[in-house]
C-alpha cells in the first residue's frame, strides 16, 4: 500500500514539475515565475543571519512559546475548521481506491502517507526560507522537527474532524461510539481548566510586572506539577523542532514519535466515521463530475442548517446586469456562514478588549476596530471574494450563449460585489460614527459627519477600481488568474498574485490622478466661495468619486469588448 | 431558420471545420454525426455564438450571428453535453436567471410546466451539487427551453439519462420540432439519429461527406441501400 502511494506521489510530483516547466516557456508564466522568485528572494533569501531573537531565549521559554502556538492552532482547528471530510479524496482516488480490494485501514494509511509527503515538502520549504536559503545539518533537523509537528497537528485536526462528524451525524449513538476520545478530551480540558484556575492569577500578576516575568511564570506553570503532565504531549511535539543539535533531536524524537504514532492509531481506529464521511463525500463528488473533470475542484455542498435557500425574487423585466447582480449576491450570501460571523464578533471583542488595555475608551476602541474592519473590507474584500468573472469564467461557454452584450456581463458580474462590499464597508464606517456619537474627546460632530460622508462616497469608488482590475486580469490574462472557486498554487501563482496586487494599486493611482484634480479643483472653488472646511472637502471628494465612476464606466465598455471577442477555445483558462 | 454558409474554423494551422454549408428549416431535426475530432462540437459552438468562425456566416432566424449577436442568440438554445451550471443557484433560480436574460415576460407561468416536463419538480430548490448527472442535464435543457427558442442545438442530449429520461428527452425534442423549432442534434448514438432526425449531416475531418435524408444519401451510394445508418456512417467515414 505504502509502495503504491509512494509511486503515485513520486510520479505525480515529477509530472507536475514537468508540466510547470513546460508552462514556463510561455512568457507570461516565465514573467510571473521571475516575479515570484524575486519576491521570495527579497522577503526571505536576501543576505542576513538565519538566527532570530527567539533562538536567544532559554530552552524552556522557547518551549513555552511553542506550546502556546500549538494551543492556538489546536483551538482554531477544533472550532473554526469547516472541513466536511478530514480526508478529502480526489475523484481519481475515490474511483481507484474504493473499488480496489483494500481494507479501510489500508485506504486510510494510503491517504495519511500521501498527506505526509505534502507536509514534509512544506516543512522543508518553510525551514529553507526561514533560514534564508542556508543548507546544512540544522536545516535537516529543523525540517524533520517541523514535519513531525505539522504531521501530528494535522492528524489531530483529522481526528477531531472525525469526532465532530460522528457526533453531528449520530448524536448520542455517535458519542457512545467515541466514548474513549471524549473521555480523554474531557479529562484534558477539565485538567486544563483546573490548572488554569489554580495558576492563572499568579501568571496574570507576573505579566503585570512585565512580559518577561509573565513568560517566566507561565513556563514554571507548564514545567511543574499537574501543568507539566498536561502540557507534556504538546512539549513532546515541539521539542524536535526546538532541538539545536543532532543529540538534542535524537533525545526529543522518541516522545514526539510516540505522540505521532498514537495519533495515527487514533485516526485509523476511527474508520467507521471515516467510512461514512468518505463515502458521503465520494457520492457528492460523483455528482460533481463536470467541475472536477475540468480540474477546478468542487465547492462545499450546502448545509441546510447554515445556508437557507431563501432568495429574493428576480423581477422578470429589467436589464441583464440586474440578473448577474442578483445571481452573485445570492452566491455571496450562501458562502457566508454564521461561523464567519462568530469569528468576526470574537475578533472585534478581542480587539476592543486589547485596545481598552491601552486605556482607550470603549466607544473609541470599538470605533477604531470598526474603521479598521471597513478598511479591510474595502481593500481586501475585492481580492478575497471571487463572486464575479473570476468564478464564472469557467462557465464562459454558457455566458457566451446568452443574448447579452459583454459590457452588461462585466457590469453585472462586478456589480454584485461592488454593492455587497460597499454596503458592508459603509455600514461599518457608519457604525463607527454612531458608537462615537457622544464622544466629546473627538473632533466636532459636524466635522465627523463630513468625514463620514466623504468615506461613504470614496469607498464604492475604490472597491470598483479594485474589482475592475481583478476582472480585467481574468479577461485579458485568463491563464494567469485562477478561474473557479479555488486558488492556484506554486511560485508563478505567487508571482501572478503579486503582479495583480501591484496592478490594482497602479490602476488606483492612475484613476486617482484625474479624481485628485477634481477634488482639488472643487475644494478650491468652494473655498473661494467661502465654503471651505470639511464639508467643502467632502464635496470635492464626491466630485472625485464621480470622476472615478466615469473612468469605471469607460473601463466596463472596454472590457465588454474584450469579452465579446473572447474565444473559449483559445482563452487558455487553466 | 438556421443558415450556415461556408463555415470555416481554424485553430492555428489545424482546420477544425472547412467550408461547411447547410440550412435547417423550422420543424426539421438535423443529425450531426462523425467520428471523434470530425468538427461536430466546433460546428455546434459556432452555431450558438460561443466561438467565432474564421470564415463564413451563420444566420439564426434571419439575424446574422456576427453582426447582430444579441437578437440571433435570443432565437437559439444550446444544450452542451457536459452540464455547466452555477453551483450556488438552485434549479428554480437557474430558470429565473435564464428567463431574465432572454427577456421572458412570464417566467412564473413557464417554470412549473417545464419542471413537470423534465421531472425536476421535487428538486426545484436543490443546488446543482445535490443533483445527479442526469438531473443536471435536464436542468440545462430546461434552461434552454424556457425562452421557447426557435432553434435548438443539442450536443449528446441523452448522456447521463436513465431509460425513462431518454424516452422523455426524445419526445421533448420531437415535440419541439413539431411545434416549429429547427433542431440540430449531435450524437454518437446512431440509432437515436436514425429514429428522430429528418436529415443527417456526416462530418469527417471538418468536411461534410454527406448531407440529406437517408434516402438522398443512399441515392448516391446504392450499394448501401437497406443498410443501417451505422453501416452507412462507417462506409462513408472509412471506419
Which features would summarize this protein structure in a list?
heterodimer; A: 574 residues; mainly alpha; 3 domains; B: 239 residues; alpha/beta; 6-stranded mixed β-sheet; 4-stranded antiparallel β-sheet
Structure write-up:
The complex is a heterodimer of chains A (574) and B (239). Chain A is mainly α and 574 residues long. Chain A has 21 helices and no strands. Chain A is globular. Chain A is 78% helix and 0% strand. Chain A has 3 domains: 1-43; 58-286, no CATH class; 319-565, no CATH class. The longest helix of chain A has 41 residues, at 137-177. Chain A has helices spanning 2-23, 27-45, 59-80, 91-99, 104-130, 137-177, 179-208, 211-222, 225-242, 246-269, 271-287, 289-293, 320-335, 338-357, 362-384, 389-392, 396-401, 406-435, 445-476, 491-528, 534-565. Residues 289-308 of chain A have low confidence and may be disordered. Chain B has 239 residues and is an alpha/beta fold. Helices cover 37% and strands 25% of the residues of chain B. In chain B, the strands form 2 sheets. Chain B has a 6-stranded mixed sheet, with helices on both faces. In chain B, a hairpin with a 2-residue loop joins strand 1 and strand 2 (14-24). In chain B, helix 3 packs parallel to helix 5 (133-145). The longest helix of chain B is centred in the last third of the chain and has 16 residues, at 163-178. The two termini of chain B are 33 Å apart. The mean pLDDT of chain B is 89. Classes of the chains: A mainly alpha (574), B alpha/beta (239). The interface between A and B is large, with 46 and 48 residues.
Task: Sum this structure up briefly.
The complex is a heterodimer of chains A (574) and B (239). Chain A has 574 residues and is mostly helical.
